[in-house]
Design brief:
The protein has 171 residues and is mainly alpha-helical. The protein is 63% helix and 5% strand. The chain is built from four helices and two strands; from the N terminus they run ααααββ. A two-stranded antiparallel sheet has the order 1-2. Helix 1 runs antiparallel to helix 2 and helix 2 runs antiparallel to helix 3. 16% of the residues are buried.
Amino acid sequence: INYTKDEFPKIHIGMEKIIGSVLIISGLIVIASAIILFKKNKTTVTPLDPSRSTKLITRGIYKYSRNPMYLGLSFVLSGVSIIVNPIGGFIFIPLFILYLNFFQIMPEENAMTDLFEKEFLEYKKSVRRWIWFLSSIAVLSAVNQVLIVFWRSFQNGVGMGFQQSGRSVLF
């Protein structure tokens, strides 16, 4: 996200440091709570070899999301992108989530099914992969921020204003 900040126009969202920091801190809390549960239950934290798991964790943060570490990571990336490069983040984060779903989460879920069979299948029926209402809130929040920027620009009579390399670009 940071490497592409000079490639896209800068969008001023307003309070981006506060919003981004809240997302980063929230993401770190979610990740830490998931890791603590893994450590308490003496099972592997590493996603590289899910077949080494010794216990299926279904309580705590895992009551709400089957993948809270990835959810927390997506919060951290969203926070960083809001602070540094919103356009790059809006492009990179959905691609990252798609990658996670296909190349990390699905293989992990196959390993969990092999290891914990009925218990994992029941858990899978009752707990979503991602927390749908939080992702819906994030999308609505992003749309709201874009609308605010458009509205402020419209009120100032300048159209949609972006800044790139010290010059303004108007749409």
